[in-house]
# Entry
Amino acid sequence: SYVKYWLNDISQSRSPNTVAAYSLTLRPVIQLIGRLSVGDIQPFHIAALYEELSKKGASAHAVKKVHKTLSSAFSYGIRMRFISINPVTGVSTPSYKPKERLCYDTDQVETFLLGAITLNDRHFTLYFTALQTAMRQGELLGLKWQDVDWGKKKITVRRQLTAWSKGKVTYSPPKSEAGHRTISIEDDLIS
# Structure
């Protein structure tokens, strides 16, 4: 199918996690309009797809993810000259308001860390580093000793853990230049 072709082709330039996420996002799409040839898909098919996804309980955010992924897939089809228009263009998606992100306050952070100490949690240093640096999970798990400059009190983000399957760990560089960064650390993290 076209989607499999597209996913296979982009797998050369995208991370395995990104390709897997696209595949998962498009699974319900394939079930609903997969019988159509890529050149036969029109904007009204896409609008009906979004309506059907919503009726089946998909959130507005999930429909927007489908919209974004389909737009990329069809844009690729235009570049490869499989199609001449992107049927997603101009189709409205349900509006959604992102949920407010909740953050721990100082008391909650202290309670969390105290609990980790009390339980002798072996991941305490990981938690403490995450809270001190705001590094992402994959970045924290991708750290190596050589990334820490104890004298200058800095951590350099050079890689991230991107997959862990059957005992095999896969690392990749951060996705963007902004992801490659050096973070100052406090004395209490060093000691």
Summary: The longest strand covers residues 160-165. The mean pLDDT is 91. Helices lie at 2-10, 16-33, 43-55, 60-79, 106-118, 124-133, 137-141, 187-190.
